Amino acid sequence: MKKLKVLLILFAFSFSAFTSNAALTKGESAKEGFNVGDKLPDIIAKSTSGKEIKLSSLKGKVVLVDFWASWCPPCRAENPRIVSAYKQFKNLKFKNGNGFTIYSFSLDKKLASWKAAISKDKLNWEYHVSELKGWHSPTSNKFGINSIPANFLIDGNGIILAKNLRGEKLELVLQHYLKK
Q1: Which residues partner with 128 through β-bridges?
Q2: Contact 129, 91 (CB under 8 A)
Q3: Could you give the maximum distance between any two Cα atoms of the chain, in Å?
Q4: Burial (CB count within 10 angstroms: exposed 0-12, middle 13-18, buried 19+), residue 119
Q5: What local confidence, expressed as pLDDT, does residue 28 receive?
Q6: Predicted confidence (pLDDT) per residue in 53-74, tens digit
Q7: What's the half-sphere exposure (Cβ side, CA atoms, 13 Å) at 10?
Q8: In the structure, what pLDDT confidence band is assigned to residue 2 with cuts at 50, 70 and 90?
Q9: What gap in Å lies between CA 106 and CA 133, rounded to an integer?
Q10: Which helix (H) or strand (E) holds 154?
């Protein structure tokens, strides 16, 4: 029964993700946007130490761009799954990316709360950024984020592979894109 459930989830994902955009022809580049098949616009935001980190600096890796906040119970409930996926996939090779990482964008306003949640939830990747403006964040507004958690999974070229993966869907989709 569990195998059937996994197959159904993969089929549903595959159908929606791969039928929503036409394949690119050789030499053509994806348009910037927020739909599967689009190139996700770059993000430049500051880390917990105040250092600017560009999403584009992660080119070549499969990246989960995760919008969350320390004050968001559903986000905090999802964090153990994200941590598990990170541990499982961070050093693997993908069809269009070498390794997996997470670019966590926080909608927090308080630096101390944000840092405490990173520590408590054991979010042990290095790419944590925020504008510390909560719902008034220019980046989250540009990306159309109106509820969290929200995320985009992008390949090594910044192309959106999937959106809003929660629970076991994240690991299933990552498995789908592994290099065989």
Answers
A1: 104
A2: no
A3: 48
A4: exposed
A5: 56
A6: 999 999 999 999 999 999 999 9
A7: 13
A8: low
A9: 9
A10: strand 150-154
Cis ω before 80 (30° cut-off from 0): no
- Average per-residue pLDDT for the chain: 89
Q: Which residues contact 103 (CB under 8 A, 6 or more apart)?
A: 43, 53, 55, 58, 63, 64, 65, 66, 127, 129
DSSP code for 147: S
**Helix (H) or strand (E) run with residue 169 in it:** helix 168-176
Q: What's the rounded Cα separation, in Å, for the pair 53 and 45?
A: 6
- Residue 82 in contact with residue 90, Cβ under 8 Å? no
Give me the torsion for CA of 16, 75, 157, 57, rounded to 10°: 170
CA–CA separation, 40 and 64 (whole Å): 11
Closest-CA residue to 63 (of 150, 143, 155, 145): 155
Mean pLDDT score, 40-52: 98
Question: 148 with 154: CB under 8 angstroms?
Answer: no
pLDDT digits (tens, 9 = 90+) for 107-161: 999 999 999 999 999 999 999 999 999 999 999 999 999 999 999 999 999 999 9
**Model-level pTM?**
0.85
**What's the chain's length in residues?**
180
Considering only CA atoms, which of 123, 37, 120 is closest in space to residue 87? Answer: 123
